[in-house]
Amino acid sequence: MIKKLFLMLLIGSLSFVKAQEYAQSILSIANPIEFDGTEFFLNESKQRSKTLFQEQYIPKDERLENFNQLIDFSFFNKEIDMELAVRQKVEMVQNRREKDKFSHVNVTESPDGGEYIVDYFISESPTNGDSYVEYNIYRFKQSEIGGQKTFLMISYAKRIYGDLKSAAKSLSKQRNHLMSTMIEYKIPEVKVTKASTGN
Question: Is 190 a member of any domain?
Fold first, then answer.
């Protein structure tokens, strides 16, 4: 079930192509949001299933197809096993190692055990378009809203295009700073305000 959910997220993320100015949040998140000194604007908001709501934010004038930075909020209004979700994400990266020498994954648990962070590097060399290395940070958090158990994944992605070795080296130097920024990021209050059926 979790594998299907993450596959749905992966496929869904590729369809966020509408102009930023037409997007309206269904999670009551302020627009724009700020992360590491950069403003991110809501690209599009979708209800992916009965229990999954997803929003993605990118800097002004960027496009999802070749973004440099991206923030994703994936909210489930149901209880999800956090450790299982973390394990699925780790396995996804580990399964790339045979063909992607730049893939590497780490897992960090909060002192109180209430949150996990999975951060990882991957690379892509598409047939059309520039090669890039991407650094991702996923923050997993369980909560309860009005007696309903919920699950939230906040992720931040940063890409550097061009020579893979140079890109990987540059992103590696930024890892500690970006990790600290994500750990210290104040999670906005999430509340579903509108139902919308995704395509």
Answer: no
Give the tens place of pLDDT for each residue, 2-23: 555 554 554 444 444 444 455 6
* 194: in domain: no
pLDDT at 33 over 80: yes
For the chain, the three-class secondary structure string (H helix, E strand, C coil) is CHHHHHHHHHHHHCCCCCCHHHCCCCCCCCCCEEECCEEEEEEEEEECCCCEEEEEEEECCCCHHHCCEEEEEEEECCCCCHHHHHHHHHHHHHCCCCCCCCCEEEEEECCCCCEEEEEEEEEECCCCCCCEEEEEEEEEEEEEECCEEEEEEEEEEEEEECCHHHHHHHHHHHHHHHHHHHHHCCCCCCCCCCCCECC
Domain holding 55, by residue range, is: 2-184
Share of the chain above pLDDT 90, in %: 71
**pLDDT single digits (tens) 45-83:** 999 999 999 999 999 999 998 999 999 999 999 999 999
For the chain, the domain total comes to: 1
Q: What is the pTM of this model?
A: 0.85
Is 48 within a domain? yes
Does 198 map to a domain?
A: no
Average pLDDT for 163-171: 97
Interatomic CA distance for residues 132 and 124, integer angstroms: 6
